[in-house]
Design goal:
It contains twelve helices and six strands. The protein has helices at about 5-25, 30-45, 50-55, 60-85, 125-130, 135-145, 150-155, 160-180, 185-200, 205-210, 235-245, 300-304; strands spanning about 210-220, 230-235, 250-260, 260-270, 270-280, 285-290.
Amino acid sequence: MTNPTEPGLTAIISERRRLTNLAYRLLGSLADAEDVVQETYTRWYALSPEQQEAIDSPGAWLTKVAGRICLDLLGSARARRERYVGEWIPEPLPDRTEWISGRPGAGTVDPADRVTLDESVHMAFLVVLEAMTPAERVAFILHDVFRYPFADIAEIVGRTPAACRQLATSARRRLRAAQPEAASTAQRADVVRAFKHAWEAKDIDALIALLAPDATATGDGGGLVRAALHPVQGAEPVARFFADLPVTAPGLTLVERTVNGQPGLVALHDGATVSVMAFEVTDHRIQHIWAVLNPAKLGPWTAS
């Protein structure tokens, strides 16, 4: 006899990757995204077989639940950020992000549990998302990135489809205003590599030449490790800040890695990741550097 819940079970398993992709873009945190997906599954399994069978589209149901959970988390995020020590930066992702399945004791990596890297996870993109209201962020990501109709989004954010359309339009304006024309990946790689060499040589003049006049550098230590509490601003201050860091200390290595789909740098101490840096490059110069040092955000880098 066929189990009536099998089609729904197959559907939710196939939705896992998409839900994780959605939650990470909405929250900027892989740990929070995993929690959202786990909670979404918990609510599905709490339904009776009859309730599951009555749901026409399990995928749509799961998205609605995950979206609402993310919306609630975003609503409380600002209060949490006020208690955060120093600057908060979205969690950086390696080129290939894999993590252990949520099942206790699981020892294999689920291929579905990967965040797809594209322009919507570039660090500059995620930082702009942080400035949006929760409703703007949800409406924009669901519509512009995941192509959900505004009628469905309206059920998640509790507004009319027309209001959701306006939210997405407002979010697009924020992105256009905050993101100048980006350099190609090859150009970014060349600039980041030149920055690495100048930093290792402690060549302040070369560093200044690679930085935009109004460049900024932001660090995130989360109060767990030492990091600048406020962004460093201006080409010369940023250059001197990096020149003073012990990048050539014994046991410390600086390597080129892909960070959120773009060229970046990773600092290793005796083989352990201690910092991940993402860059925004425009007109062959570095506009912004984001350095994540908070060990709580470096889990995927430790495992990769």
